[in-house]
Structures are given as C-alpha cells and as structure tokens.
Amino acid sequence: MPWEVKRSVLLLLTVLLFWCEFKSGEAKETDVWRLFREAQKNILHLNQHRLKAVEDLNKTNSEKQLLIDKIEQLEREKQASVGKPQDRLSSCWEVLLRIDSMVLTRMIAAGEASDLRRLVTDHKMSLAEVFDGTLQKTDAELLAELRHFFARSRRNGFHIVHICTEMAPLVSVGSLASYVTGLSRALQRKGHLVEVILPKYSSLDLDEIQGLQEIEAESFSYFNGQLHGNRIWTGVVYGIGVTLIQPLEYSEFFNREKVYGYSDDFERFTYFSRASLDYIVKCGKQPDVIHIHNWETAIIGPLFWDIFANQGLEGTRILLTCHDLNSQCLEHPDKLALCGLDPSSLHRPDRLQDNTKSHLVNILKGGVVYSNNVVIMSSVLSKGRVIHTLSHGLDPTLNIHKNKLVVSPCGFDNSAWDPSKDSFLPRNFNVEDMEGKAVCKAALQQHLGLSEHASTILIGCIVSEDVDLEKMRAVIMKACKSDVQFIIMGTSKLSSIHNLGSLQETLKDEQVKFVNECDAAITHLVFAGSDIILCQSFHDPVLQVPLKALKYGAAPIALNSSHDNFRNFAEHDYETTNFSRFISSTFGNMSISEVLDEMKNHPSKWKRKILDAMEMDFSWDAECCDVHCSAYTAIKKS
C-alpha cells in the first residue's frame, strides 16, 4: 500500500475516534488533544520512513544508472578499439604465423604462401572477416577464407625480417635488445611489416609472448656435414611476429646461463644463422630485407649470397647493423665449412680474411663485405670518425665499402618516457605547461629529505658499472660549492652496492643524496625533477639517459664535456646525425660550471633552450627510423 494512502487512512481513523468519544461525552478535552498529538507523531514518523525509502530508491536507481553508463562506455571503447592498428597488427600476425605453419606441414606450397602473405600485408585490403576469431578457426577454414579473399596487390611498405640474438623484453644483454624492439615498432607504425627470428634460449621470458605455440612440423638445417632437426615456436611481442628456433640435437647451444661468452659461440650462432635462413626458405617467405646484427649473425651475408639467394630469395637484400665494431669474431677458416661455406673461396683479402691476422677469417668483416648496406649505430660519431679512428682494424674494409655505410643514432621509447603522460609522476607537464616539473622537483626533494627550495639547482647523476668514479667525484665536489643538490643513483643493484658505496665514503654532504633502490617510479621522478642530468656519454644506446633527459626538460651534461672534447666526436660537415648537431650546438661543450653560470645569469635564455630541447623528437620513430627506411629503400633499388 502506498505511503500516501496509509497516511490518509490513519488520519481518517483518528478523526472518527475523536468524533465518537466526543459524541459519547466520555472523553475529556485533554484526552482529545493527547490523542491528536499521538496521531500527529505517528504521521510524522511514518512520513520519515517514507522519505527514507524514497531516498534509498533514488540512490539505488542512481547506482543502477551509473552501472549502465559504465557498461555503455566500455562497450563504446570496445567498439572503438576494433580495427585499431595494434589490434589489426596482432590479428595480422596470427594469420601470418598460421600461414607459416601451413607451409611447414605441406598444406600449401611456398608460392601460394607468398601470395597469401602479400594479401595479408596489403594495407589497402580489408580482411576483418578473416581476422575475426582467427585462433578459433581450423587451418582448413582459415585457408578457405584466405583463398576466397585472395587478390594480388602491391604492398606499400617493406617486409623486414630481423635475425638477431636479442630482443626486449624477451632477452636483453646490451643495446641490441631495445634497438630491435624499438626500431621494429617504429617501422610497423609507418606501415612496414617486421618480424624477428631468435634462438629459443632456456632463459627466455616466454610470458611476454602472446599466442606462443609450437609448429608441429619437421624443420631441418645443415650443420657439420649433416641435416639436424629444429623445433619452431611462434608468437607475437608488441605486435611483432616472433619466431624461436630450438635445436634438437644441439639443444645445449642455447640452454645456458648466459647469452654470450662461451668458447663455442661461433658454432652456436652459426648454427642459428643457417637454421634461420632454412626456415625462411621452407616457409616460402620472400622478405624485402633480411636485417642482421653484429658478428653473431654476420655470417648470414656470405651464407645468403653463396647458398640461399637462388632458393626463391632473388628479390631479398641484406642489411647489417653494427653496434660494436670492437667485437668481430676471428676464427680458423676451416670452421666455415660447418655451415656449408667454402673456406678456400672466402679466406681472401677482399672477403673474410682478417686485415691484421691473415691466417684467420673475420666474421664481422664478412658481414660488411656481403651486405648490401651497413648501418653503424652511433649518436655522436661521424662516418669519417668511425672509419678512421674507431673501426678496430676494419678501416681498410670500411673504406672500400664506405658508400654503403650510414650512421644512425639510437632512439628511446617515447610511449614509456613522456612527461605529459607519465603515470609515475605526481603531476604531468609539457612545453606549454611546465608547472608540473616544479611539482616533481619538490616531490623528489621531499622524498629524499632535501631542502625544498625552488631556486636550488637539482642535478641527477645516473651511475652505471663503467663510470669514472674519480672524475664524477671531482665534478660533484667542485659543483657543491654552489647552491646545488645532487641525487646519485645506480642503474642496477650491483652498481648501487659497489659504485655508490665507494662514492659515499668521500661525498658526505647534506646536499648529496644516494639512491640505493632500483625502482622505476623513482627513476622517472629523477628525470622529471632534475634541472640537469649528468651523463657518462652522449652516446648511450643502453640507458638512453641523454635522450630521456631532453624529453623531461633536464639538460644532459656529459661527465667529460669540455670546449674541445666534443669536437672530437662530432664533425659537423661530414655525415653526422641530427642528434649530434643539436647536442653540439646546445649542451655538448658545456661543463657543469658553465651551465650553472648560464642558469643564474641568463635564466630566460636558458629556459628557452630547455623548451626547444623538449620539443625535439629523438625517439625510435624519428631519425633512427628514417635512416633505416632510407637504407632499405636504397638497397631495394640497387
């Protein structure tokens, strides 16, 4: 019964009661008023219950509506996400990997597989119906739909296959890991199709691979005079198709604690290189570029041109990236026969014979000679500087092949390192709104127990294993005479314990704080809160400290900077990188003392310099990607 009806009935009964008592003459006037007040109290009590019930009902309806709105929002987001590049890319790779499986199981021929891959990678075609529920379809169902949609069309982008020994986050030892992942993601964002082939190390972080599966097919590769079997695993990492090769008879090759540093490294990586080329041929892949890296896969150069180029790869070209010219791998020529190469034809001065130790072959030299293009990774060195000073005995070879050499800077992941979106920061900031940087600085000072003065210059120092401790100590002690604060942090637990411990013994100052925690949040806050970041070098392919500092509005100052020193690394008129030219004109020749003077005496000029630096793009998507795209284009036209 509604509350309004109950209230009316109650009032009527009360009035009738009053009337009856009055008519009978038995009730006194005081009793009438008493009854009236009780009735009124009951009415008020019931009305309060009614209001509470209405309030609860409204609250329930409101919560229900919020839930409905949230469901609708999630549905809209789901609908909006359909067809996004990353989603399409993951679906695309599911189909491509299924095609590889079809070839290895002899379900389709290599030629048809190549045509189907072109269909999938043609960015102009819509294959949403094929992509939908790919994993739930059988191979026969998927093949039928692919054949139904098949139509040849020219691809706009390149098909690039990296054959390498590292890839972040699966296995990371040096700069190669972040480079392969960063460059591959940047290339795919620009419309190219990229895949990566790796050894299946026992230490791989397989949880990072989406849709990991073993292809149930026989895969063989030639090594040491015989054919040997491999297991093939496929999956997707960051939208990039990844293939893992696992030797069966040589399982110990990659079932070890470390990635590098064994006496049989040549045998291990030569086996993997040959197996990777065998896999490409058996799958009927016809990539535009096979991208190889360092000496570990440089043997692919002569393997490709002497054995594989005529096995359906006539349109494929080879690009070699060198991250460290100091590591070249010298071996006895007879070892080349392990992977099917002819030692007598390759042990020559114009091919693999080492320039100094002529009785040995140089594997990295072979990669240079047999590649169509060579990219030297260096953020600050010119091509001439690399050839004439830092080639570690390869200068005659690099001089002969200098026309196919290019220099590229490294990049950094601007999706993880962006102060305008960084979730680790107490407040975000950008060039248009720099207030957040002051908030981050105050938060950093508070976190480490430093005095919170906005005028105090905060200098962050990133210490790695090979830091020059004496140089850093001298720079810090000299700068501490000014109104500055230092935050010194290691890049790993080992460096924190060893390097920072020895520094702390001599740098006992309340304005110098040591961070012994290796935490992502505090690392991001150090970049965001610092006015200056002291770097070991402007070429930092592993940590990318200078690049991150620029993005976060902190001036990167090299530990060994001086007016004359940087000119030894950057020759402005001879094939240097954009990054090198920018750094040399801004922070490259500045010492800490000069920076402090300019910040104090010319604050407006300094602020403009910082804002200009923040607007520069030195991510993987920028110069690094452009250099590689130009290199791919050049070798495809050759």
Segments where pLDDT lies below 50 for 5+ residues?
493-497, 567-573
The helix content is: 40-55%
Sketch the major β-sheet.
9 strands, mixed
CATH class of the largest domain: Alpha Beta
Total number of β-strand segments? 16
What's the CATH H-level superfamily name of the largest domain? Glycogen Phosphorylase B
> What distance separates the N and C termini?
90 Å
Number of helical segments with 4 or more residues: 23
CATH architecture of the largest domain: 3-Layer(aba) Sandwich
Q: What fraction of residues sit in β-strands?
A: 15-25%
Shape: flat
Summary, kept brief:
By secondary structure, the chain is an alpha/beta fold.
Structure description:
The protein has a nine-stranded mixed beta sheet with strand order 3-4-5-2-1-6-7-10-11, sandwiched between helices. Helix 1 runs antiparallel to helix 2, helix 7 crosses helix 23 and helix 15 packs across helix 18 (520-529). Helices cover 47% and strands 15% of the residues. With 638 residues, the protein is an alpha/beta fold. Strand 12, helix 16 and strand 13 (484-490) form a beta-alpha-beta unit. GO terms for molecular function: alpha-1,4-glucan glucosyltransferase (ADP-glucose donor) activity.
Structural topology:
Layout: H1 3-24, H2 29-81, H3 85-104, H4 110-121, H5 128-131, H6 139-149, E1 159-163, H7 175-189, E2 193-199, E3 210-223, E4 226-237, E5 240-247, H8 265-282, E6 289-293, H9 294-298, H10 300-308, E7 317-322, E8 330-331, H11 343-346, E9 361-362, H12 363-370, E10 373-377, H13 383-389, H14 395-400, E11 405-408, H15 435-448, E12 457-463, H16 469-479, E13 484-490, H17 493-506, E14 512-515, H18 520-529, E15 532-535, H19 545-551, E16 555-558, H20 578-586, H21 592-601, H22 603-615, H23 620-637
Parallel strand pairs: 1-2, 1-6, 2-5, 6-7, 7-10, 10-11, 12-13, 12-15, 13-14, 15-16
Antiparallel strand pairs: 3-4, 4-5, 8-9
Helix pairs in contact: 1-2, 3-4, 7-23, 8-10, 10-12, 15-18, 21-22
